[in-house]
Write a structure and sequence with these properties.
Order of helices and strands of chain A: HHHHHHHHH
Number of helices of chain A: 9
CATH class of the largest domain in chain A: Mainly Alpha
Distance between the termini of chain A: 53 Å
CATH superfamily of the largest domain in chain A: Tetracycline Repressor, domain 2
Oligomer: homodimer
Shape of chain A: elongated
C-alpha cells in the first residue's frame, strides 16, 4: 500500500476508535468518523467498506491481539509467572488509557448490536496465559496441581471482569490498585508448597 | 395494593424481564411488553410510568438483591466461607436460568443506553461478601492477612466477570464448571496456613 493510503487508513481507524470508545457503536455514524478524521465518507467506504468493516478493524488492531502489546511477554530471562503478571498490568493500562484498545473492548461488549462477527479476543489471551503457565509448571514455579488450560481460562475471565467492573464502578484510575488486590488473592494459590517440588536437576 | 393490581404488576414485570433478557432494552418497546403480558400499554404506564420505570423495577427485583436469593446465606451453623461459596453458585445459577435476574444483568450492561440511574448491584453483593469474610476471619477460617473489604471487592468483580464471559463464550451450561475451576484457584489463597492460626479458645 502507498504510504499516503496507509496514513489515511490509520487516521480513519484512530478517529473511529475514539468515537466508538466515547459514544459506542450505535451512536457513531460514518459521517462522524469522516468529520473527526478530516477525511471524506468516501474514504471510509473505500478503505473499510462499511461501518461494520471499520469496527472489525478496530477490534483486530489492538484489543484482540494483546500479545503484541508488550515485549516482556517473550523475554525468557524473566520467570513465566512474573511475565504473566506484568502482561496483565500492560493490558489493564491499555484498557484504561489506549483509545484503540478501549474502543475494541466497548465494541466487543456491544457485539449484539453489530452486524458482523467480531473476533473473540479471549481465545488468544487464554492461549498466551496457558503457554506461560505450562512453562512455569515445567520449571516447578507453580504447584503441580495447577492445570495450565483451565487455570488460564479462569484467570483471563476473572481478570477481564475485574478490570471492566472496576472501571465502571470506580473509574479507570483505580484499576491497577484493584488488580494488585486480585493478584494478592490469586498468586498464593498458584505457588508450589515450600519444598514440595523442585525443578528437574534442582 | 389490591390482589388484582399486584398480579397485573407482576405479570408486566415478568413479561418485560423476558423481553429485556432476549432483545435488550433498546429492542423492547412498551407495546412489546403489553403484547407479551396480554395487558394494555396503559397498564404499563399506570404501574411503572415509563419504559425506564419498568427497567428499574426489573433490576431492583432480583439482580440488585442477591442476598434474597438464598436462605443458606444466613445459616450460622454453616461455616461462612462455605456460605460464600454456596451463595456464588446460587447467583451463578440465577444468572444462567432466571429470566428476571438475566434481564437485570443485561440492563445493567446496557445502562449507558437507559435514561435512568440503575442501582449498582455490586455494592450490596460486596457488603454481603465482606460480612462473611469478616466472620470467617474472626473464627480463624481464613488467613489473617485476608482483609475482608478489598478481598470481597476483588472476589465479587472477578466472579461476575467469570460468569458473564463464560456465558458469552461458551453458553450458560458451562458456568458452574468454570466457577468450580475458579474457586479451586482462589480458595487456597484464603485458607489459613496449617497450624498458623487458631480461633480464640481453640
Amino acid at each position: 500500500m502507498q504510504k499516503r493510503a496507509k496514513a489515511t487508513r490509520r487516521s480513519l481507524l484512530e478517529a473511529a476508535a475514539q468515537l466508538f470508545a466515547e459514544q459506542g457503536y450505535a451512536g457513531t455514524s460514518v459521517n462522524d468518523i469522516s468529520a473527526r478524521s478530516g477525511r471524506t465518507s468516501g474514504a471510509v467506504y473505500f478503505h473499510y467498506a462499511s461501518k461494520e468493516g471499520i469496527a472489525l478493524a478496530v477490534v483486530r488492531d489492538r484489543f484482540a491481539t494483546w500479545s503484541q502489546l508488550t515485549t516482556a511477554y517473550a523475554d525468557r530471562a524473566v520467570p513465566p509467572v512474573e511475565r504473566l503478571v506484568g502482561l496483565s498490568y500492560d493490558i489493564a493500562r491499555a484498557l484504561a488509557e489506549d483509545p484503540v484498545t478501549r474502543a475494541g473492548a466497548r465494541l466487543w461488549a456491544e457485539r449484539a448490536t453489530i452486524d458482523a462477527p467480531l473476533p473473540d479476543p479471549f481465545a488468544l489471551w487464554t492461549a498466551a496465559a496457558t503457554r506461560l503457565l505450562a512453562e512455569a509448571r515445567l520449571a516447578g514455579q507453580v504447584a503441580p496441581h495447577v492445570r495450565p488450560a483451565p487455570t488460564a481460562r479462569a484467570l483471563v475471565r476473572a481478570f477481564f471482569g475485574l478490570c471492566s467492573l472496576t472501571e465502571a464502578l470506580e473509574g479507570a484510575a483505580t484499576v491497577t490498585d484493584r488488580l494488585t488486590d486480585w493478584w494478592q488473592l490469586t498468586l498464593p494459590s498458584l505457588r508450589p508448597a515450600p519444598g514440595a517440588h523442585r525443578p528437574a536437576g534442582g
